[in-house]
């Protein structure tokens, strides 16, 4: 069974963390996008939620009355977030974006005794390091594009020449959605290598690059709710990636979204759970970094075989995908 995303965010039911619906909990949502607004909207309507804060939030959240925005709380400063939680009796923190998760906000909150929805920094490496993600796929037989990782530009270019174009070059670390270059020619691929490894365009995030097989097919976003050992699928979605109408112009983080993704049939959903999500959750537990939170798989449904391959992992809800309701 699958659930729609806004509906799904009510799965972050505070009573799961505090034991009883009678003990209504004050929740702090971290982030400032449409995704965080959708989370505030759902939490505000949960019977087990007392009050909702959002830091830093945005004008839309503030105007809607779905949460009280704390625009001056520095979400990159764990001790400031913890002090805020103590001062206002926050009993659950829901972390929206990846950067604070990768930086370890959940680790710090849990250490301070504050329940947090979102993975530890160790588990968030699934998004924070593409090399970590690809190694996990290798070790646990999870279908993904064939790849090699490089720090030496000459070695990367030699591999590219052997493989041919089109080919995909990726910065290892977080690069705000800009660290992936789909090169249609060898020259574009060499340029991408130079951009990352020689010119340092993405700083330390690009000091290691992944050179990856180009996959052809249709993309879909797949979400699962994970408790460290088990996973249940949420409803699928697809976002409009290109900036312009009619799928034109450069790629973006998503100009809008719809749900469900018609390409994710029930059979495909089972296959994605069996071949991608469950082996990842089990593999992460075996590696000693249990994943807790929303695991968001960017999939390519390959044109030739119709089978799903993992393009990337995100360790959070999608934005804009989180906003699409049923
Ligand atoms: P990522 O940040 O890894 O999701 O990549 C951004 C976008 O680049 C994806 O949404 C795809 O459109 C494209 N992309 C990434 N990897 C591949 C690949 N191996 N083959 C084809 N397209 C890809
Ligand atoms: N819409 C893409 C993302 O949330 O990463």
TrEMBL record:
Pfam families recorded: GARS_A, GARS_N
Entry keyword set: ATP-binding, Ligase, Nucleotide-binding
Residue ranges annotated for the ATP-grasp domain, each copy included: 134-318
Signal peptide region: none
InterPro entries reported for this sequence: ATP-grasp, ATP_grasp_subdomain_1, PreATP-grasp_dom_sf, PRibGlycinamid_synth_ATP-grasp, PRibGlycinamide_synth, PRibGlycinamide_synth_CS, PRibGlycinamide_synth_N
Keyword check for Lipid biosynthesis: no
Identification of the protein by name: ATP-grasp domain-containing protein
Species, as recorded: Vitis vinifera
């Amino acid at each position: 069974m699958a659930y729609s995303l806004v509906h799904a965010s009510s799965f972050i039911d505070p009573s799961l963390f505090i034991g009883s619906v009678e003990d209504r909990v004050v929740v702090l949502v971290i982030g400032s996008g449409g995704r965080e607004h959708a989370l505030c909207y759902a939490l505000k309507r949960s019977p087990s939620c007392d009050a909702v804060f959002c830091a830093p939030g945005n004008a839309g959240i503030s105007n809607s009355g779905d949460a009280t925005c704390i625009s001056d709380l520095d979400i990159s400063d764990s001790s400031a977030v913890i002090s805020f939680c103590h001062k206002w009796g926050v009993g659950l923190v829901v972390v929206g974006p990846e950067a604070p998760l990768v930086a370890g906000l959940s680790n710090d909150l849990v250490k301070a005794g504050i329940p947090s929805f979102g993975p530890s920094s160790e588990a968030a490496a699934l998004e924070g390091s593409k090399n970590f993600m690809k190694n996990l796929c290798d070790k646990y037989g999870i279908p993904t594009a064939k790849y090699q990782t490089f720090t030496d530009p000459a070695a990367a270019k030699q591999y590219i020449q052997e493989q041919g174009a089109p080919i995909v070059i990726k910065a290892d670390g977080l690069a705000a959605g800009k660290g992936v270059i789909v090169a249609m020619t060898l020259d574009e691929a060499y340029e991408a290598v130079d951009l990352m490894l020689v010119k340092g365009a993405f700083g330390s995030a690009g000091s290691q690059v992944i050179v990856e097989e180009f996959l052809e097919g249709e993309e879909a976003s797949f979400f699962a709710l994970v408790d460290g050992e088990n996973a249940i699928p949420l409803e699928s979605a697809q976002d409009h990636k290109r900036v312009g109408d009619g799928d034109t112009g450069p790629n973006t983080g998503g100009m809008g979204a719809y749900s469900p993704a018609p390409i994710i049939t029930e059979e495909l959903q089972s296959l994605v759970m069996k071949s991608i999500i469950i082996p990842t959750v089990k593999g992460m537990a075996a590696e000693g970094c249990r994943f807790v939170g929303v695991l968001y798989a960017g999939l390519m449904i390959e044109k030739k075989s119709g089978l799903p391959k993992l393009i990337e992992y995100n360790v959070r809800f999608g934005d804009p995908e989180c906003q699409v309701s049923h």
